[in-house]
Amino acid sequence: MKRIPRVTWWASIVAALCAGFAAVAVAQPAQAATGFTVSGTQILEGNGTPFVMRGVNHAHTWYTSQLGSLANIKALGANTVRVVLSSGNRWTRNDAADVADVIAQCRANRLICVLEVHDTTGYGDEGAAATLAQAADYWVSIKSALDGQENYVILNIGNEPYGNTNPAGWVADTKNAITRLRAAGFAHQIMVDAPNWGQDWSFTMRDNAASVFAADPNRNTVFSVHMYGVFDTAAEITDYLNRFRTAGLPLVIGEFGHNHSDGDPDEDTILATAQQLGVGYLGWSWSGNGGGVEYLDMVTNFDPAQLTSWGQRLFNGANGIKATSKQATIFGAQPSTSPSNWPPSDPPPSSPSSSAPAGACTATYRVTNSWPGGFQGDVTVKAGNAAITAWTVSWTWPSGQRFTNTWSATVTTSGETVTAKNAAWNGRLAAGATTNWGFTGTVTGANTAPATVACTAS
């Protein structure tokens, strides 16, 4: 197995944690409606609709045969994917044809595509790392694949472009890379990663964000912090995110995890605060991690039927992707109740089958998403006139459907018969209260809903 290069952050949080933030709001001129733009702390689509990233990172450059993962990432509700590319300085170069294919696959799966050059990771600490100037050279060299994609693509100039050695150098190098890309004719929204292996514990990005933003003649730069062990307390997370909010500058969490070799990030606070403030987030990473951080895989061996605990948390947990993601309007409208990737010109896939009461609860089954040979579904369990402590839902598949993945319930099957019991955390429902569990599945032919969906409770 290939190993995704990750790092150990050697520096601890130092007295810089108490440093002040240059909270200087920058005047932002009106933008032409060409792709993504910035308005204060918000990212806007070309039509002016606010867009909040809810997605994951995918290690394309090391696993080019796994581009089909984009469909699986979308099926679990993501609206954005951050794609790892190589400029050729450290790994095999992704040429213009490959990048064009990546963008086409993102668009086909109705995902906004954040493209990043990974070769810059840890510059100053990592001897093989490329400079931001070299990353800019790469973007210019593949500009033909990027022109006209401003509505679908955001350019993340370089991943974690400085380590802990001389992070102050990040400021000038980042400004120069931005102005170089603008001079070359790039109108895309630009994203810039923080130094300190992305975690900005020196607050170099935070305290210089206003001047970096002002250096972009298009005023269309977004800042990205990576949250691992440096962000292991709620106070550190909320303070950092709120400083950008106060400054009126756009920030996303370009990477984060539930654990790491440099400490234990507080993922619950990251997710909750990002949702509260409307900050985008992109978890690391879909699959293929190595080097001792395999626990950061969201699925095992790129198999969407094998969600890990981290994948379950990010996709299906509180403030996670399924609960908060909204598809970009450039791809058409979607129902507010579920992620969707069916073409807006098509009718939604087959619809609900609801049970009659059988005990003290009812269950409603519906298909929320569909693609050739597969689909995504959702079951709503509702308590009756009295509180319940546990529930069981059952049905018989009418069309040979089979699960590939389930979440928020313990599911067993016997032939065509399905039995789903509540998870430890969602069995207790007050009178009239509801909970949901979901699944993905395969189907051949008509995707007919079960005739009866039974629910029993205790």
UniProtKB/TrEMBL annotation:
Domain of life: Bacteria
Keyword Iron: no
Biased composition (Pro residues): 341-351
Keywords of this entry: Carbohydrate metabolism, Cellulose degradation, Glycosidase, Hydrolase, Polysaccharide degradation, Signal
E.C. number(s) listed in UniProt: 3.2.1.4
Catalyzed reaction equations: Endohydrolysis of (1->4)-beta-D-glucosidic linkages in cellulose, lichenin and cereal beta-D-glucans
Start and end residues of each CBM2 domain: 354-458
Entry's family note: Belongs to the glycosyl hydrolase 5 (cellulase A) family.
Name of one Pfam family that matches: CBM_2
Signal peptide bounds: 1-32
Protein known as: Endoglucanase
